[in-house]
Automatic annotation (TrEMBL):
Matching InterPro entries: Aminoglycoside_PTrfase (IPR002575), Kinase-like_dom_sf (IPR011009)
Chain ranges of the Aminoglycoside phosphotransferase domain: 17-205
Superkingdom of origin organism: Bacteria
UniProt organism field: Paractinoplanes bogorensis
Name used for this protein in its record: Phosphotransferase
Pfam families: APH (PF01636)
Amino acid sequence: MGWEALSQWGDDAVRLERMTGGVANDVWRVRVGGRIAVGRLGTRDDADLAWETGLMQHLDRAGMAVPVPIPTVDGRLFVDGLTVMTFMEGGPPATPDDWRRVADTLRELHRLTAGRPQRPGWRSSADLLHAETGTKVDLGAMPAESVARVRAAWARLAGRPTSVVHGNPANPGNVRVTAERVALIDWDEAHVDAPDLDLVLPGNAAGLDPDRHDIAAQASAAWEATVSWGDDYATRRLSEVRVV
């Protein structure tokens, strides 16, 4: 159905302008019910979108600042790959104190989602020590030496408690900061994994000790290389992962 599905949010629902930053999805500023919101059209299936929208509702009820799904006229949270969520005001983190606030927000996310089930079709870094595929990951497409390197990095995190991780909070474009709160946006990469993957932030804002930071940084670079495999960014991130 594509963007025609936006009509399910009301006769006055309309697209206004395309927003930058989206890679896997077509993201637009929209107006629904007389208010500005964000519409995102992608190819994720209903189970995936149910997990994500359910997570947003859970975090919102717990007091976190996140984009909240706006239901259609008949109460659905997504239609044919389209979701509409509240627009989050604010700008990217600009100071070390901003990034420390981001770290505190991430730790609250991890606390609130301990034990939450995995996103349908996804695999954690620990799962991928044995599994070959999961959503955007296909280890079979990588050279054996590269697979050995990323698995060695992830093995150092194995056995730790898990929670939902945002997936890319070090990207300033995925954070909206105001004086009152820190909001995390763009949850397209969120899944259940080791929380330290989220805490590799500019200036070590999370205050990890050197050994813990090294483990997290290696595992994070390995993850980014794997999910982006096939482009220059993936090659650059893999170069940060130590050879076994």
